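TICKET: design request
STATUS: open
ATTACHED STRUCTURE:
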């Protein structure tokens, strides 16, 4: 089976919690922890970025589907919350709204599409993460 790289990002920081994120496509993002967690709040926290990715993928995929069906959705809003209750595993609450009126069949189909978005499918079953150290090209300090 052929290997396909779906995304690339490089993350780096020198001190504190703030991190510079760059993608292969040349986009720059900053991530940090809020001050109450010892950060400087100069960027979105990692879980906020994860939810933002899920929400963006949801809205984009729904828009693609609606465009193919020639449905008018108007503005799409996806609100997400990461919730931890007691000893239960974390879960995401996702609420979707669109500006235009939809019938029951359209709403049902869009909810089905939301559960099939690429980021949803990657996160939902759990994601295997392989972690290794790379050989540093920088001299040790």
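STATUS: resolved
RESOLUTION: sequence designed for all positions
ATTACHED SEQUENCE:
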């Amino acid at each position: 089976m052929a290997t396909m790289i779906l995304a690339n990002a490089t993350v780096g920081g020198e001190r504190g919690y703030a991190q510079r994120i760059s993608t292969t496509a040349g986009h720059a993002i900053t991530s940090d922890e809020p001050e109450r967690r010892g950060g400087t709040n100069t960027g979105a926290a990692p879980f906020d970025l994860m939810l933002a990715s899920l929400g963006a993928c949801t809205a984009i995929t729904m828009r693609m589907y609606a465009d193919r069906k020639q449905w008018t959705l108007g503005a799409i809003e996806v609100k997400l919350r990461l919730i931890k209750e007691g000893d239960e595993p974390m879960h995401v609450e996702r609420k979707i709204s669109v500006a235009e009126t939809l019938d029951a069949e359209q709403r049902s189909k869009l909810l089905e599409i939301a559960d099939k978005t690429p980021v949803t499918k990657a996160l939902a079953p759990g994601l295997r993460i392989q972690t290794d150290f790379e050989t540093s090209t920088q001299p040790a300090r």
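CLOSING REMARK: The radius of gyration is 19 Å. The chain has a mean pLDDT of 89.
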